[in-house]
Amino acid sequence: MTELLEDYALNKSLKSKTANIKAGLVGCGSMGQEIAILISKSGIDLTFIEVSEEKVEQAFAAIGEQIDHIISHWGMTSGDKRAILSRIKGSVNFEDLADCSLVIEAINTTKWIPNQPTRKEVFKKIEEVVSDDCIMISNASTIVISDLAVVLNKPYRAVGVHFISPTLDTKIIEINRCRNTSNDSIEFVNRFVRMLGKETINIYGSPGNISTRIIVPMINEACGLLMEGVSTVAQIDKTMMDGYGMQRGPFTMADHIGLDKLTKWMEGLYNEYGDKRYKSSPIIRRMVRAGILGIKTGEGFYFYKNGKQYEKKGSISHLGQQ
Amino acid sequence: MKILVINCGSSSIKYQLFDMTNEDVLAKGIVEKIGLNGSFLKNERADGDKVTLNGNIYDHQQGIEYVLGVLTSERHGSIKNLDEIQAVGHRVVHGGEAFKSSVRITQEVIDKMEEVAELAPLHNPPNLKGIYAVSSLMPNVPQAGAFDTAFHQSMTPESYMYAIPYTLYAKYGIRRYGFHGSSHRFVSQRAAELMGKKVEELKIITCHLGNGASIAAVKHGLSIDTSMGLTPVEGLMMGTRCGDLDVGALAYIMSKESINLSATNTLVNKHSGMLGISGVSSDMREVEAAAAEGNQRAILSLRMYEYRIKKYIGAYTAAMGGVDAIVFTGGIGENADQTRANIMKDFEYLNLDFDFEKNKGVRGAEIDLTKPTSKVKVWIVPTNEELVIARDTLEIVSQ
């Protein structure tokens, strides 16, 4: 006969509400995968939604690969991998988000896939299935959370949360609220972010948060220097790394972000603020048109092979190619 | 008097309920996977009744609540109601320099524990959670804390200081603290009893060899040196920890592998030791099985494990100006007869005559493993950290 643990609870049971968090995630592309690993690593169950069974399988395979990469760099053990994967479920049905205490929208808008809804549609679909107190989070970098909140019946639950890649290593997470966001929602999200072992940076209604607004003009300025022939990609990166203690220089950063995604950020900020310092540099636009998108295509401002970065030797008018 | 001893880990709670009249264990058990999928509680009563209960356990408070629920239940319980538990003793990993012995838990003690929590970020916070949980569930029951580091607070500066800028000690308390203190204290005192002598008359080297491993020089009842340091990484080779390592090598590894501090911590804590060398397992039994089949790296890891212990025994004999007894304890120390035999080879220079025949197959018994003629004795003394905590708690709450 199986006995239930619940039968042995003391009368004065103080079930902790805070610890019983279950997370949902809509969109499990490369960023979504990083978010899934981070959340599950913190001991929280997570269900992600993708557009097809095939995408669900691909996401699981990619999550496994990401963890294997971390293990090979000594950051986790195979036991950690088993535990992380056991807490992640994949699905194509939004209904599977019904019991989530928070749902994160992390859809990838740079690669448009047929049938993929927009962020607003996703927010509406999530609200249809979740409970009244479920918090709804968008990982969008340059969209104001109030733009998404307006489509909700309960806009006070919408919060912008910006996970910065590499999500596992980055120590901070930006939390962006809007006029509609309630204090309870913000408090909940702050608690959640601390459960992930991160510090919170609270921001009020700024598209682009802090990080994106500063990084975008810096990368544009670096492109300006390059086009004027002031210096080389590697020298400019080195100056910012060794001179200002940055972990990565602006070009390496751009390659990591992905130039297509970066262009989206730039367009978003330019549309919002109308300031040309946010307008993407012609060199970045040329590279995106040529399919040179950074690490993910093996070539950006640098070449990438077997996880190593190589300097490009050619002239800037040939995008560094010889 | 009935005393509950609690040991809260990051996702587990171990507990034992003692009746201190005869130091009987009324019940013991473990709660595992707190806050994770598949959490459960296992309880074993003195009469052999065993139960495993599965269900959600979200945090330590809830875990302890269920423990108390099971202990007082009709079907699997050992007591009728909670009032029978007259004191609770907690294991606390790091006491810093603030705690030289076990103490009664007060707000002031909790504040100090919060201060030193930085020194053991993985262990002290869950220990504190256990204390908070008991405070809220049984607010009138006195609690005591027993610190892993307390017994080693008798070390003098020449043994506990690192030769790094003194300001780092002054600013952050960077020094050697040592761990497994309750175990080293218990087995050294018990060995003296078994030898019919006072611990104050003896020089004893205690080898606590479990999943974590440390060795201590106990001179006249006081720890004068121990192998673990600021953290439990230093000293002996362990299941997955590297033990002593050139810090220059670590800096070189970090640069070569381009890894950050967190990965470096995982490297020395989880990928190293027996597991790192053998590539087989962190479990001594599995490494021994692989070695028996001729796995060269498994064999190497066993030899390295034994060699480092031997080296420390030599060092501590020198530090104490002699040794009267060497004590083995912990899962490996108590059970791995081949490991003991390999360590105890070539000790004739100390007039230590190890009885290799007698040692064979001995597991978990209190026994002297030397020949009657041996000047230096080698004992197995099974450790009992929970009992030490229960005794300390009894003493503290009786005052």
CATH fold descriptor of the largest domain in chain A:
Rossmann fold
The overall pLDDT of chain B, averaged over residues, is 94
Look at the structure and name the CATH superfamily of the largest domain in chain B.
Answer: ATPase, nucleotide binding domain
The radius of gyration over CA of chain B amounts to 21 Å
Give the largest interface.
Answer: A-B, 27 and 37 residues
How many strands, which pairing sense, and closed or not: the largest β-sheet of chain A?
8 strands, mixed
Q: What percent of residues of chain B adopt helix (DSSP H or I)?
A: 25-40%
Coarse morphology of chain B: globular
Indicate the CATH architecture of the largest domain in chain A.
3-Layer(aba) Sandwich
| Rg result of chain A | 21 Å
Query: What string gives the helices and strands of chain B in order?
Result: EEEEEHEEHHEHHHEEEHHHHHEHHHEEH
Number of helices of chain A: 11
Task: State the assembly state of the protein chains.
Answer: heterodimer
Following the backbone from N to C, one meets helices and strands of chain A in this order, namely EHEHHEEHEHEEHEHHHHHEE
* CATH architecture descriptor of the largest domain in chain B: 2-Layer Sandwich
What is the strand arrangement across the widest sheet of chain B? 5-4-3-2-1-6-8-7
